[in-house]
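Annex B. Sample input.
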Amino acid sequence: MKTGRRYPRSRHGCRTAPYDDGHTLAALDIYRPGIISFVKKSIFERTWKSFAGSFKTAHTGGIPNEKIKMARSDVHPVHRFEPWQVFPGSYRNPPPDGNFPAAPRQAPAISPDTPIASMGSCFAREIRKILLAKGYAYITEETHHPAAVHASAAWERVYNTFCLRQIFEYTFGTWRPALRWWHTPQSGRIQDPYRRIILYDDLQAAEADFTRHRICSRRALERAEVLILTLGLTEIWQDREDGAVICLPSGPYVSEGGDMTRYRFRVSRYNENLDNLERIHAILARHNPACRLLITVSPVHLWATFRRDADVISASCNSKSTLRAAADEFCTRHDNAHYFPAFEMATIYQPLTGRSWFSEGKENFHVNSDCVDFIMRHFFRFYSPPAC
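Annex B, continued. Sample output.
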């Protein structure tokens, strides 16, 4: 049997007792939620600080904890973000300092002796130039060929993932489209629809050169320990008969009135581009399984769009966004695939520092040389092996 004094219930539903200057224990019931919240918050903050300290020790490359400041947020005051998790200069966080805020990642170590190949859009050409100038073991096949100045072999500029996939299929397989060559209506020359404006005097020369090209293409892709793929755009021209995708509707075949009705223009979507990257990965896994892939999205915008339902700026944004999303999913799926944020460095980080990333003159949709240097400085910073 319980003993002790019992008190009547208050209007708040709890029993009351005289306390100090007439206040009752009912007051504690009123404020109990706030008190409990305060206690929980205090316990959480102490626990989080302990965890954050150990996390920083494990992820700061040996830098003393007291020299690394966690980023702050007035919106999420309890959570302590790493500096690379918050927008530079926001709230009380430091402004951009010229060093892109990179997250810790398992990145491929690339030394000057690492055999590197690259292919893709216009920006791939800039990567090639600087790697060669720095004395890196950049793979160069078909050096006599004018189409090889943009990449490791005479692939020319490759703007979409469909044409990238077709390169792997004709290099390691038997890919052959229904209409392999264009015959220009007036000049009588042979044009390759699948590589940008490559011309031949006759069909025999075209076939002989393509046979040599397949050999060189295979040699480059089998030798590469790192392959850089630069993704450009999502607009494609597709053969209605077999689905093959041409490089661009350009060159003398088009200007001389060649029949383009067999090709259908359309905008490719996320799943298709992701499937193309997966197909490339599968082929490379069979023929060069040790090769690591470095995926970038070109910061060069569309000069023009073939779309009739969107302006060029919106069409360019759609292309880059679609490819960026596909690249993110692809790199998440594969341990040997890594994303290099060249696009973000140019289009977001450079403007934050007050610098323009556009070129001047008639090709103002390209990135300027200072921006290319900035991107490649970070390339070497991210992927150079740690000093002994």
